[in-house]
Design a protein that fits this description.
This protein has about 240 residues and is α/β, with parallel strands linked by helices. About 40% of the residues lie in helices and about 25% in strands. Strand 9 and strand 10 form a beta hairpin.
Length: about 240
């Protein structure tokens, strides 16, 4: 579904990604793990066209999307849930969800997606008129995912969904990610600092180190890999 070929990304004189290649098959959950600064968020930002690729190619469903603008990326069915949630704090839950549907013109489709979001995160329906900035961290993460789902994505990118959330709600969020993938068939690329949790729900994974892919395997094999266990899974 998605292929990245020899992707190089620079911030001025600093090279953040050095020839990264990876693929995500339709229906998979694939995770990127690595230390802070490894290039995980940069990879997602480049896929969303929020940062340009210096070299390399990004192919989605057979189409070269490397130079497309962000709104065209979303139109094709790729949505991102950014690190830190980035909700519109001064807008209500309802207004945030409407923002996620900004490319949709069919009222029936918008209503269908809203019901999908409410079925996935019932708490959002209860908080519909509440100002988003007053929600808990976990509720804000639900809203950020819900907002992305309003765009009818085929491919969902999640950047650190467990960040700043109470442990009990982290488990709930990850159960919902699995549900979104396995029940609704949305392909997922997951960046997550909690490598144990990420590899628990993923089909496959890539290990990034200083902007390079140093290891790739199915998730079960990565969890058993001594190198990964020592570096990312607490021994």
């Amino acid at each position: 579904m998605l292929e990245i070929h020899n992707l190089t990304v620079r911030y001025g004189a600093i090279t953040a990604l050095h020839g990264v290649s990876l693929r995500v098959n339709a229906g998979e959950i694939v995770t990127l793990i690595g230390a802070n600064g490894a290039g995980k968020t940069t990879t997602l930002k480049t896929l969303s066209a929020l940062h340009p690729a210096a070299e390399g190619k990004i192919v989605f469903e057979g189409h070269d999307i490397t130079r497309l603008p962000p709104h065209e990326i979303v139109r094709l069915g790729l949505s991102q849930v950014p690190e830190g949630r980035m909700i519109f704090a001064n807008l209500t839950v309802h207004e945030n969800l409407q923002m996620g549907a900004y490319l949709q013109r069919d009222a029936a489709v918008i209503e269908q997606q809203r019901e999908f979001v409410f079925a996935t995160f019932p708490r959002l329906k209860e908080r519909l008129k509440q100002v988003a900035g007053t929600l808990s961290g976990g509720e804000q993460q639900m809203l950020a995912i819900g907002r992305a789902l309003m765009g009818r994505p085929k491919f969902l990118m999640l950047d650190e969904p467990s960040l700043g959330i109470a442990p009990l709600l982290v488990r709930t969020i990850f159960e919902k990610i699995v549900e979104i993938n396995r029940v609704h068939g949305i392909t997922i690329l997951l960046v997550e600092q909690n490598a144990n949790l990420a590899l628990e729900i993923a089909h496959r994974g890539y290990v990034l180190e200083t902007g390079r892919v140093i290891l790739t395997d199915d998730a079960k094999a990565l969890r058993a890999n001594p190198q990964v266990k020592t570096a990312y899974l607490g021994g």
